[in-house]
Amino acid sequence: MNTPAQASHDDSYASEHDHKKCVSEALGTAEHLCVVRGVQLTPIRHQVLELIWENHKAVKAYELLDRLKPQMDAAKPATIYRALDFLIEQGLIHRVESLNAFVGCRCSAHQHEQLLLICNNCQEVEERSAPEVMQALSQEIKQADFIVHSKALEIHGICVKCAQTMAGEQH
Amino acid sequence: MNTPAQASHDDSYASEHDHKKCVSEALGTAEHLCVVRGVQLTPIRHQVLELIWENHKAVKAYELLDRLKPQMDAAKPATIYRALDFLIEQGLIHRVESLNAFVGCRCSAHQHEQLLLICNNCQEVEERSAPEVMQALSQEIKQADFIVHSKALEIHGICVKCAQTMAGEQH
DNA sequence: AGTTAAGTGTTATATTATAACATTCGTCTT
DNA sequence: AAGACGAATGTTATAATATAACACTTAACT
């Protein structure tokens, strides 16, 4: 499979906002939730979650594996996939179905199913709770007499920042 | 990867409605659209489309390959994937992202992006145009200043028929 | 000490998908 | 007719994604 182009803004998400705060909040919430739920956020799981939170881009399992290896020589596919399974079960990350990739979840404590806006240019993923969409969805699903287990709501396109960057480069 | 349980109703979609008509309409529309668009629905592509339309279940690429081989001994992965790429480009089938599988599209001529209700029990997929959902989505995406390229809207759960079957089996 | 359950280590393999290059075939050009 | 072309297909190889299966460790409980 081809390596997707990894556009990267100077003013990327990671620098535009206070990403350290962003990460520490996410990890703090994760640690707290795991204690509350009586599940173990083991060192491996914590490391994988940290790697995922390095930015807001969707990241592939084998890329995480490569990034984990320097810290953990023994890391194998199963190491990553087990950690990912746990993190998904706990709602701490999203699996991006349309990319076979993973991204941190900011909404672990609340409802987990969100609308994902996925930039085809920079791979950053924006989560939106999109209440009107969810409301309309509920109605529609109810009309169909369908019993929901899970939702994957993924929009691909170009994010604001990339659109601006591209517009700037036109001149 | 595990083989998903393939539940199958006596009163399955395929027998409940006039599936022959369903298939002939789908194939007829496909043939017509390809003529209009000046693209070639070659024998291979036609055969793959027919295989996909054998039922309303999401089907895997390698399962299609196995089903194609009796008719076409030379069939290889590339054979299937090329046909699938064409059919997707032309909007004649959906790729179900959350299953890495494929299903016939009833709405080729109109808007292609639909809400998919995917039964975890029988693998049947119901397409719904869900105008209210699409309207709410447009609003939400506009608010995010996001430029849409494509949408994957996939709901997993249990379809009406399976729910009824299960309820019946409780006694 | 013995048992158990959860987590991890390790090897192997299954599943999904694409790359790369050769060949065929019909059509258009000369 | 000969050659050029583009689209489709044939063919081989391999990349990328994911899981199975079984062994081992550890901590908690009995």
UniProtKB/TrEMBL annotation, chains A, B:
GO terms for cellular component: cytosol. Its cofactor is Zn(2+). It comes from the Bacteria. It holds the Pfam family FUR. One of its GO terms (molecular function) is zinc ion binding. Zn(2+) binds at residues 119, 122, 159, 162. Keywords: DNA-binding, Metal-binding, Repressor, Transcription, Transcription regulation, Zinc. The keyword DNA-binding applies. GO terms for biological process: negative regulation of DNA-templated transcription; regulation of secondary metabolite biosynthetic process. Binds 1 zinc ion per subunit. PANTHER family: ZINC UPTAKE REGULATION PROTEIN (PTHR33202). Belongs to the Fur family. This is Transcriptional repressor.
